[in-house]
Amino acid sequence: MVGRSASESEGERSRLDGPAVVAFVMGVLSVATSVIVVGIVLGPIAAILGYLSYRRIDSSAGRLRGRGLALSGLVLGIAGLAASLLVPVVLLFDSIDHLRGLPRRRPVARRGGDGVHPELVQVAVLPAEGALQDVVNNVER
Predict the structure, then answer these.
(1) pLDDT tens-digit profile of 68-77?
(2) For the whole model, what pTM was predicted?
(3) Is 113 helix (H, G, I), strand (E, B) or coil?
(4) What are the φ/ψ torsions at residue 104 (nearest 5 degrees)?
């Protein structure tokens, strides 16, 4: 038997721990779906499965493999949970900062009877005082 150790040849081959694989896959999915906030559900499941599998592999005396997968599932599950919690907060603060940076709405005064479409002039928003005068000058031409 080439390439096998003495313990493997006696039928004591170590096997890959199933929960370690599941923890890793769920950890990857929790990070990948954290943008749509699904990581809130998948992250804790991956972290708990990864932790339990890690402990189970350590106490198996070499009968189980997959310690790296279990640890990766644990870490990725925590990262996916954290990212899922941070994404809405970042988007909220970004939206608030964006709204604060917008100019105040200054509608153009309506002028009637000179061929200008009032509905178009009514919804115009101008960012600065000088731009208001430019629009009024262009409308009067």
Answers:
(1) 999 999 999 9
(2) 0.61
(3) coil
(4) -70, 150
d(CA 71, CA 92): 32
* Residue with the larger pLDDT of the pair 29 and 7: 29
Q: Are 81 and 39 in contact (CB under 8 A)?
A: yes
Q: What pLDDT band is residue 28 in, cutting at 50, 70 and 90? A: very high
pLDDT for the residue numbered 52: 97
Residue 13 per-residue DSSP state:
-
Residues 6+ apart with CB under 8 A from 77: 23, 26, 27, 30, 42, 43, 44, 45, 46, 47, 48, 49, 50
Residue with structure tokens 């940076």? 101
Closest to 69 in 3D by CA, of 86, 81, 57, 83: 57
5-31: average pLDDT = 82
- Whole-angstrom Cα distance, residue 69 to residue 54? 9
2 to 6, 9, 81, 99, 106: CA distances (angstroms): 11, 10, 45, 69, 83
At 12, is the secondary structure helix, strand, or coil? Answer: coil
Angstrom distance (rounded) from CA 14 to CA 9: 11
